[in-house]
């Protein structure tokens, strides 16, 4: 799809139009409405006589003068209740309507979606991102219908073209595409997505973007470094573990010899059966997406590099497959991590925190300015928050506010949860330093986070439990499957960290 910025005078006289307004009065003053002929305007005024202009109202109209031309009208509801979440949904709804009517293109007005306290450049970037998110589908393994898949080829956005707005549009396209690349990767079936395939995705990015350096450690090197957590979880599978390290460093960061990089760590379990503590039939179905955190890190770094942000950032993805077999690790095993701490395995289905322990421990050697890990870590956080935001934990209170602001700004919404020292009692091991499961049935998301906290040292750290937002849900106007959670969050963190 091509997304372009045009001025009001250059709107094609045959283009399909999207007109969004809060009221009939605003609609009649809308520049796209005023661009129509008097006959067409009179027809629409009559057709919309009973239109309520709520955010649930929409309609598609053919013009008397050009029957082949479609005009899509959207109500925006009450102006004082307009916010970013509604903006995201309305833009995606536009794309959904275009596809439902098999329209190849349309023109929209960026001013329709303006958010108070949001700059025109930020608004334009968010519009582009959400157009691309709504356009994404994963049809690679489905038979193509006789009339083909609905395809939108062109969306023109009316604004006042300038270098700043064009740059914002370009940035939005980069971020939206990177998020979709993450979704594509996460949607890959578990029989095809292996630790090696995940590593190859990072390698391919390194080959196409010179500023990104990729190093993949294999099983022998992982063992040599003392990553007993990664080795332990992976040993039940015929697929060998991979430890993926991506580094992007801008020319400015290299010139300043930046010693304390930003670190992203992503959980890369390419399929999670639960190991010997086997998951239920319902619980195992979507576990090919248990590498969503790793996919988010890979494609966030891709986007950061394409945006040429003035920063040094390192992505670390421990990639394993968690399978039950005669060689699987067992409940009761003791695994020694790269930090020297031992993990007492109480549950082989709490494997993500085990491999992240080694990854976070490895990350400490870089003396990071900030570490952020993303993981589909617990079902408990879904119970706590539902499926519209991720859980956020941090070892510094200022990071909680930062994270929430970043989430609200990007649409990768998060909600802060506590990380008190008292919770450490729950993971005190009997025979090892820490146990990978807790003593009660409560607070599972907090227990997972407090476990990870034991492996970050004294460095600033944020943990995003993205289990709630791993997949899309009804009403989001997004294709079924992976949501690409975390990509936009990480890019925005990097933008403010440079």
Structure description:
- It is a single chain.
- The chain has 498 residues and is of the alpha/beta class.
- The protein has two domains: 2-157, Leucine Aminopeptidase, subunit E, domain 1; 174-497, Zn peptidases (Aminopeptidase), CATH 3.40.630.
- 37% of the residues lie in helices and 19% in strands.
- Strands 7, 8, 9, 10, 11, 14, 15, 16 and 18 form a nine-stranded mixed beta sheet that branches. It has a three-stranded parallel beta sheet with strand order 1-6-5, covered by helices on one side.
- Strand 5 (105-109), helix 5 (120-135) and strand 6 form a beta-alpha-beta unit.
User: Distance between termini?
Assistant: 31 Å
Query: How would the global form be characterised?
Result: elongated
The H-level CATH homologous superfamily of the largest domain, spelled out, is Zn peptidases
Number of E strands:
18
Q: Estimate the helix proportion, in percent.
A: 25-40%
């Amino acid at each position: 799809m091509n997304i372009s910025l045009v001025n009001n005078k250059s709107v094609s006289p045959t283009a399909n139009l999207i007109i969004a307004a809060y009221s009939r009065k605003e609609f009649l003053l809308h520049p796209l409405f005023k661009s129509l002929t008097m006959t067409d305007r009179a027809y629409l005024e009559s057709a919309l006589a009973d239109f309520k202009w709520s955010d649930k109202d929409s309609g598609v109209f053919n013009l008397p003068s050009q029957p082949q031309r479609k005009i899509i009208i959207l109500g925006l509801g009450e102006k004082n209740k307009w916010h970013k979440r509604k903006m995201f949904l309305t833009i995606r709804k536009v794309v959904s309507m275009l596809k439902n009517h098999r329209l190849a293109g349309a023109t929209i007005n960026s001013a329709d979606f303006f958010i108070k306290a949001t700059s025109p450049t930020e608004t334009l970037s968010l519009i582009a991102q959400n157009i691309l998110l709504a356009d994404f589908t994963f049809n690679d393994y489905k038979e193509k219908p006789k009339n083909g898949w609905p395809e939108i080829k062109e969306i023109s956005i009316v604004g006042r073209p300038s270098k700043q707005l064009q740059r914002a549009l370009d940035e939005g396209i980069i971020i939206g595409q990177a998020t979709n690349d993450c979704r594509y990767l996460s949607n890959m079936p578990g029989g095809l997505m292996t630790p090696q395939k995940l590593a190859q995705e990072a390698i391919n990015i390194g080959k196409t973007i010179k500023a990104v350096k990729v190093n993949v450690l294999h099983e022998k090197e992982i063992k040599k470094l003392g990553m007993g957590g990664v080795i332990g979880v992976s040993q039940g599978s015929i697929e060998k573990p991979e430890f993926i390290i991506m580094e992007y460093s801008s020319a400015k960061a290299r010139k300043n010899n930046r010693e304390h990089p930003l670190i992203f760590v992503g959980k890369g379990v390419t399929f999670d059966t639960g190991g010997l503590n086997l998951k239920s039939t319902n619980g195992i179905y979507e576990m090919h997406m248990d590498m969503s955190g790793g996919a988010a890190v890979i494609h966030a770094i891709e986007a950061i590099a394409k945006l040429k942000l003035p920063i040094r950032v390192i992505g670390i993805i421990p990639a394993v497959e968690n399978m039950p077999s005669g060689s699987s690790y067992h409940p009761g095993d003791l695994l020694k991590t790269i930090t020297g701490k031992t993990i007492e395995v109480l549950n082989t289905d709490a494997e993500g925190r085990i491999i992240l322990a080694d990854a976070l421990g490895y990350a400490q050697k870089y003396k990071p300015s900030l570490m952020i890990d993303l993981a589909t870590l617990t079902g408990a956080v879904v119970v706590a928050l539902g499926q519209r935001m991720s859980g956020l934990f941090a070892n510094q209170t200022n990071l909680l506010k930062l994270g929430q602001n970043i989430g609200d700004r990007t649409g990768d919404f998060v909600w802060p949860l506590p990380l008190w020292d008292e919770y450490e009692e729950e993971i005190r091991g009997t025979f090892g330093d820490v146990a990978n499961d807790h003593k009660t049935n409560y607070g599972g998301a907090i227990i997972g986070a407090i476990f990870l906290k034991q492996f970050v040292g004294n460095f600033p750290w944020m943990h995003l439990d993205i289990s709630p937002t791993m997949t899309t849900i009804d009403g989001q106007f997004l294709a079924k499957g992976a949501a690409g959670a975390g990509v936009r969050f990480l890019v925005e963190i990097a933008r403010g960290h440079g």
